[in-house]
Amino acid sequence: MDEAVGKALELMEQRSAAYVVTPNPEIVMLCRENPSLSRAVENAAMVLPDGIGIVKGARILGTPLKQKLPVIDFAQELFSHMAIHGMTLFLLGAKPGVAEKAAANLSARFEGLKIVGTNDGYFEDSAPLIEKINSVSPDLLLVCLGAPKQELWMYENAHLLSVGLMAGLGGSLDVFAGIAERAPESWRKLGLEWLYRLKEEPSRAKRMTNLPKFGFAVICRRMFRNK
After folding, report:
1. Which of 126, 140, 173, 202 has its CA 20 to 30 A from that of 151?
2. Does residue 2 fall inside a structural domain?
3. Cα 23 from Cα 222, distance rounded (Å)
4. 3 state SS of 158
5. How many CB atoms lie within 10 A of CB 177?
6. What is the pLDDT of residue 45?
7. Does a structural domain hold residue 114?
8. Do the Cβ atoms of 87 and 99 come closer than 8 Å?
9. Which tens digit of pLDDT belongs to each residue from 39-70?
10. Domain that holds residue 106
11. Residues 144 and 169 sit within 8 Å (Cβ to Cβ)
12. Does residue 174 lie within any of the structural domains?
């Protein structure tokens, strides 16, 4: 976590509109089907393992990672450091009104963090949105549009944006706004956040079929990668 936050702060200082992606097994499987998404993930300045499946898969393939980095925890650690230095944040995504609620909660929690703009995720034309973001030129732009939309949007628009760093953080704004709850800590320690979300949102069942597919793909790669 310390390494990830340090790298993110370093990228913000460079102000190159680099971006962070946080793939889980579902996103990995989408990348195998979608070349554009695969390119977007491969071109990210930072790729954080958001999910126990990624950590276990990497271990099976002989390239172990230090730890899982849940996007909520990463963002909160980053906000703490940004608040100390009075850095700026723009929130993009979720339904109308959610980003504003998240902004109010984050401002109260992280004194010194400057939230300079918000926008919901229901837009058709990116040009006015990019102009709005560039007018405040934030140190960090949270892009919470869900996968694969957020990864593709960052990849396709990075060269047009005047920001320090972007981070695609899925449904994080709903959590920061108090609309959605994270899995209890006991579930998180066991690596069962995905199961808790499925329990709370049964409609995710179809998406969860990617978990066994991911496991099968990892095992096949391990068995046949030399062939």
Report:
1. 202
2. no
3. 20
4. helix
5. 21
6. 98
7. yes
8. no
9. 999 999 999 998 889 999 999 999 999 999 99
10. 16-210+217-222
11. yes
12. yes
